[in-house]
Each structure stands twice: as C-alpha cells, then as structure tokens.
Amino acid sequence: MTLDPTEVRRQFPALATEAVYFDNPGGTQVPQRVIERISNYLTTTNANAGGAFATSRASDAVVEEARLAVARFLGASRPEEIIFGPNMTTLTFNLSRALGRRLLPGDEIIVTHLDHDANISPWLHIAEDRGCVVHWLDFDVEDCTLRLEQFDRLLSSRTRLVAVGYASNAVGTVNPVAEVVHRAHQAGALCFVDAVQYAPHRLIDVQALDCDFLAVSAYKFFGPHLGALYGKFEHLARLRAYKVRPASDEPPGKFETGTPAFENIAGTLGALEYLAWLGGATSAERPALANAMEAIQGYERTLTLALLERLGGIPGVHIFGLTEPERIDERVPTVSFTVDGQTPRRVAERLAQAGIYVWDGNFYALAVTQRLGLEPRGGLVRVGLVHYNTLDEIERFEGVLRRVAAGD
Questions:
Q1: Which has the least CB within 10 A, 64, 132, 135, 217?
Q2: Each residue of 24-75: pLDDT tens digit?
C-alpha cells in the first residue's frame, strides 16, 4: 500500500501551522486520536486501578486494551510481556536493578559506543555495584556502523548481558540486531535492545529477533510520554522486582511500581489505533500495523534519499553516517551533520528563526559524539524525518541551510 502525505498530515493538529517539525527523534507530534483518547480517559474513566466501581473497571479495561495493542505492535506472544513506565530510561534502570541481583563479581556486560546513554549508563552503574566487567563494542567512524568483527572477541563464557540499540538516535544507523542476539545467545548471554529510534520507522518482531528484552517510547511513535518494555515472560516471571508491598508478584504488575499515567496509556492506544487506520483497519491488529509500517518505510525511503542528496550538495556540510543510496535500508531517516565555521547550536538557531525545528548537541548519545571527537565542538545538528514530513519541507530546509552554510 502507498501513503498519502496530505491525508496523513490532516490527522495531526500541530501540522496546521507553518512550522517544519524535523525534531522528531526527540519526540513526534500526535494525531487527533491520541488527543481524543487522553481527553476521553480524563473525562469519563479517570480512576485508580483495581476498584469495584465503574470508572475503575473502565480504566482497567483501557489499560489492558493498550497492553494488548502494544504486544501486537511489537510482536510479543502475550500482553503480560509488556510493562508500562514513565519512559525507556526509567524502565531500563529498573530492569537493570532486577537483573543485577543475579550478577556476580567478574561477570561481563557488553555495551556499544553507538548507543543512547539510556542503554549504557544503567549497565555501567549495575556493573559498578556488582563488580562486573564492562566491554565496549566500537563503531567505524567513517560510516558509523558497528564493528561486528570485534564482537566475538568480546564475548566470553562470563558474558551475562549484551545491550545494543536497534537504530542510532544520533546518526541513524540500523544495527544488525538479529545477528547480535544470535551471537549473544550462543555465548549464553541475554540481549537487551533499545528500539526507541527504530519503532517509528520499521516493523518490530520481538519473537523473530528472539531478544530477551526490548524497550520503546510511545512519544517517539506518535503517542504521549510513556515507555514500554517487552520481556520474555520466562524472564519476567523469574526476576525479582524492586517493588512495594503488597503489589503483585506476577508480571507485568510487579514491575509497574506506583500509580501509572493511565491517561498516557490510553493515549498510546490512540497512537496504535492511528497506525492501524494508516494500515487500513479500525483496531490495532498486527496485520494492519504491519501494513502501516511497510507504507511508512517505503515513503520514508524517498524522503531519506532526498534529504541526503540535498545535504550532500551544500558546500561545507559534513554528514555523519551512511549516505550511499544502495545502503539506504541500513539507516532510518535521522541524519546528523556539521557545518564549517558554524556551531551546531548556531545552525539550529538560524533554522529555528525560519520555522524549521532541528536538534543540536549530543542527544544523550554522548558515546557517539565523544568517539567522533565532536563533543568539544558542540556535537551535531540532527534532522529527523517521519512519515508526516514532506519533500516540500526538505526543499525549504535546504534553501535556509544553504544560506546559513554560506554565512549569509
């Protein structure tokens, strides 16, 4: 199926303005369905969980419907494998503590220089607490792809966890996660996948990946501020969670500490209903979600090629990451660059003055900007496209950036 960008944009109230939202890796805009789901929750079903009365029962039903929708979105085998939380970072820290109970001094953890720090620092902290050894998988600074030839040398019989990102939030690289998971399992290790930057762009299938844990953030795939963590049920059932009494000892409840943001859970359901609409259905069923993500990937391929071509033609602009058209499927449409003679913040400010919103800095991918030697220079300028962006917006962006790069 094909995607109609005009009809798509009608679904997003924020897109009625002249602003160009290229800040999407930091958080996407939301469709009307999300707004309606949140509003309806707060006006008709606003209550805490587990009560005998109508609004509490209705609230519980919304949460379970959302949990099932997220399970379908990620390809999980059952809804109990989905844990909600404030964001991916908080969920990862919580899981790291539970996993840390099982780690012994001398056990080993592998992280990568290509990851967001939310998939690095939680493991560094727990390694420090438990006396574990951390190994770093490097990336090639020329094309920003993982150096998988190092991976087997880092794995050992003491490796207990491999943490890897599905797609880089800094330079857009899509990592060969299935291969990483396979090799980790061969060594007897678990694998945790940060899929936050991958989820808005491609279909995720946790069962096909065979990953042990995978995290996403709804506000990166057109929903409100909410995180979701997938875990194989066997792991979630066995792990001892940090929780209050007398909270449930069963997943997912034992990992969902405190009162959840029920309205944001409802809004996340709305985001998946929007994707289902895009895929030709009225409810968040897996086939409709797959259709939507296929259409998104095809449309975004065109956008990415156009963006890379325009950027590559501007003197003084240096792109980091994959740029070859034949390798376009190895990246998501998150493209970062520098401009000769301009700090990333100055470039972002000039673009903002023209109504074009981009990010600058390290985007919490500190290991990336440090490895590239860009941290002392202010990091990178980042443009992140999603399926509601257009070729006309890319053309407008190019015109402004040309003037900025020329010093006008």
A1: 64
A2: 999 999 999 999 999 999 999 999 999 999 999 999 999 999 999 999 999 9
Record the tokens describing residue 327, joined without a space.
Answer: 């390798």
Run of H or E residues at 84: strand 82-85
pLDDT in tens, 216-271: 999 999 999 999 999 999 999 999 999 898 888 899 999 998 999 999 999 999 99
DSSP per-residue codes, 174-191: BP-HHHHHHHHHHTT-EE
Please say whether the beta carbons of 292 and 279 come within 8 A.
Answer: yes
- Which residues, listed in sequence order, are joined to residue 339 by a DSSP beta bridge? 317, 342
Task: List the one residue out of 137, 11, 18 whose CA is nearest residue 393.
Answer: 18
Residue 127: helix, strand or coil by DSSP? helix
Phi, psi of 161 (to 5 degrees): -150, 140
CA distance 317 to 309: 12
Same domain, 202 and 102: yes
Q: What is the structure's pLDDT at 246?
A: 86
Closest C-alpha to 158, from 182, 136, 132: 132
Domain match, 389 and 262 both: no
Give the CA radius of gyration of the chain. Answer: 21
- Token pair listed for 252: 């997912």
Q: For residues 392, 398, 400 and 401, what is the CA-based torsion angle, rounded to 10 degrees?
A: 150
Both 88 and 67 in a single domain? yes
Same-domain status, 302 and 392? yes
